[in-house]
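Throughout our pipeline, every protein is held as a single compact record rather than as scattered files. Such a record has a labelled line for the sequence and another for the backbone structure tokens. This encoding replaces a full spatial description with a residue-level series of whole-number codes. For reference, a complete record is included directly beneath this paragraph.
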Amino acid sequence: MRPRIVAFPLRGNAYTESLYAEFRAQGAEILKGEWGGRWLISNLHAGDVVHFHWPSYLYESEGSIATILRSFLRFLQLVSIIRLRTREVWWTAHNLMPHDRCRIPYLDVVARVVVIHVAKRVFVHGPEAERVLQARFPSVASKSVLIPLGNWIGRYPPSESACQARRNLKLPTEAFVYLFFGNARPYKNLEGLIEVFRKVAKTDDILLAAGRFWDRTYLTRILDMAAGDDRIRINHCFIPDDRVSDYFVACNAVCMPYREILTSGTAMLALGYGRPVLSINRGFLRDLVRHECGLLIEPGDPEALADGLLTLRARSWVEAEIVRVAERFTFSEAARISLSCVGKA
């Protein structure tokens, strides 16, 4: 029987779009879930699989306390409806806790406990991420299933050349370019990267930060830190798919000195372009970033970050070797493992 997966969410994210494309290719029917009681009662069937990714997006995290509590109560009610309609609930644990915490932080913990309780399977990207998740939520141990975080090789329109990519981004041809890519949030520690870069980078180095800033106060702080140093470029905007390749082809290395992490799509994206990664020795990165494709440091250590930046520049990295690491992780395999769980006890 052809399995039907009800996705929360289906679109708007490179991960879910890539994964569900593979689900379809392997015979599954995919349905975009709508977060409402009437829709759930009318559309969910006993044999459906309901697949959650980021539960915190399904309840309010800001506003008045009363608004947040009402939203969270609705979340619990709708999860209960799902549990009554189907016993096949999945959660892919992309992070240990939401990066943008609820104004009532304890509700984030409760939400995960609830989702783990109703879930039949909890998918985790790599042994180290699984260990971290089980240490925080021991009840997940009997439900966790390891799946690869797939690569995005070939997903985005290619750049004409590295020289053209640099011209498109107005970058010097001979500079060593460090890239910080993706939505900029405080946990990603861009301010720490800027501070260290200003101290140790050479006069012809470039630090390029590209992505959205959801918090205007944080953007102002970053712009103030970068002011007066022409080597630091802040492209605070949404990066459309047809421009993604330019950023990775134009750079020499990708920097992710986060404060915490469980899974990282940015790291996988960088490796797919053959770019070495500097990040923290936590979560899935321990399983992904090997000697030939990057460096891992302890979070919150400016000296280690400084050494890492200098090492990125000094070492000779082999693009083909880095790409081969990314090629070992596929969405096809993630979909195969996931679909093999359908209907099993």
